[in-house]
Amino acid sequence: MGEQDHIDKPGTETVEVPALEASAAPEPDKAAPPEAPKKPRTKRRSTAMFVGGIVAASFGAPMTAGGVIGIAGCGEGELKDCTQEGAVGLTVVGALVLGGGIALTLHGRERLHDNSAPKKASAVPLVTVGLGSASLRWDF
Fold it and tell me: Which of 41-45, 69-73, 105-109, 117-121 has the lowest mean pLDDT?
């Protein structure tokens, strides 16, 4: 930046800009922040399926591992005369129990919207008549 920056050019004006005054930051509102929207109520699809799946998987994993070990160890050492049918059967059944347990756990742990709003009492029963059937429902 040389002398050229300070020389007025024809047709231009020099204007002085006043310095900014230091001001205090505005006070934040003392009001509470807006509440976040409530998450919809959910419930687990089935606690029994969830727990049953965990138990089944807990039994299926060692069964599968025992069957694989039985297949690998058959014909060696003390197990020279063994047949692999039992070990193969244990492996297959263990794998099925393990797979079923995993499926039950995943299906049972799903979260569903809780639509179990309290029902309002009705003074009038609901009567439904169809071909060969009739039903009566009365919530009280």
Answer: 117-121
Helix (H, G, I), strand (E, B) or coil at 13: coil
Q: Is residue 127 part of a domain?
A: no
- Which of 3-12, 80-89, 90-99 bottoms out in mean pLDDT, i.e. has the lowest? 3-12
Contact 81, 125 (CB under 8 A): no
- Count helices and strands (H / E) in the chain: 2, 4
Helix 47-73 vs helix 85-108: crossing angle, to nearest 10: 160
CA-based nearest residue to 123, from 110, 139, 136, 107: 139
Rounded mean pLDDT of 90-98? Answer: 95
Any idea what the Cα angle at residue 10 is, between residues 9 and 14, rounded to 5°? 60
State the total domains in the chain. Answer: 1
Provide the domain limits for residue 77: 42-116
